[in-house]
Amino acid sequence: MQINIFNEQNTIFNRFVAEIRDVSIQTDPMRFRRNLERMGEIFAYEISKTLPYKKTEVKTPLGIAEESLPENNVVVASILRAGLPLHQGLLNYFDRADNAFVSAYRKYTEDGDFDIHIEYISSPSLDNRMVILSDPMLASGNSMDLAYKALLHRGRPSHVHLVAIIASKEGLEYVKETLKDEPVTLWIGALDDELNAKSYIVPGLGDAGDLAFGTKL
Predict the structure, then answer these.
(1) Above 70 in pLDDT, residue 105?
(2) If you count Cβ atoms within 10 Å of the first and of the last residue's Cβ in the chain, which end, N or C, has fewer?
(3) What separation in angstroms does the CA of 97 have from each of 4, 124, 128?
């Protein structure tokens, strides 16, 4: 599995990571959503470099130009609801892509433990498609793993790019192990050391879904 971690380099991406972590900036949900979207655009740009391309002739007012264009075989998939702004950023660049959505949530027990449940999938056929599956946070890795496997019921992709803005080292190792034999590339914005007792990434940023869309019951 190829793993790409953006903030190991000095890029403008790091400014957006800093802003979504910052408690003083998190009070503005519109700015939080927009930063997720902008990071999705950067992920899309980098992923686009890995796609197959073909020469295409383009008619201009003065003649014919030859350009290398990516093959339109992409499906952008996201885990609801936190993944929606990130999804939009990816879609801004892959604007001809089909779309898929997976509903995943934590079902808590009385003693505070939880399991991840997949409740709903909306997806085209994924056979021989290039899929980008995104979720802002890769905490334990369970949600990403279950969403990936749920999408396989819609077909077998040629390759899957997993996108997370912030991941824990534990989540990264979990995904590396559970998907080690799958055609997967992992894209991470920032890698944090710790996962606390409630499976939240530390220092992380908190609950991305609540920060983007408001608290839930």
Answers:
(1) no
(2) C
(3) 22, 11, 14
In this predicted structure, the answer to whether residue 116 has a pLDDT above a threshold of 90 is no
CB atoms near residue 24 (< 10 Å):
7
pLDDT at 201: 95
Question: Taking 90 as the threshold, does the pLDDT of residue 69 lie above it?
Answer: yes
Identify whether 58 is part of a domain.
no
Q: CA torsion sign, 34 to 124 to 160 to 153?
A: positive
78 within domain boundaries: yes
Residue 14 falls inside a structural domain: yes
What range does the domain containing 25 cover?
2-53+69-213
- Per-residue pLDDT for 60 more than 70? yes
What is the CATH classification number for the domain harbouring 79?
Answer: 3.40.50.2020
User: Which among 11, 9, 20 is positioned nearest to 136, based on CA atoms?
Assistant: 20
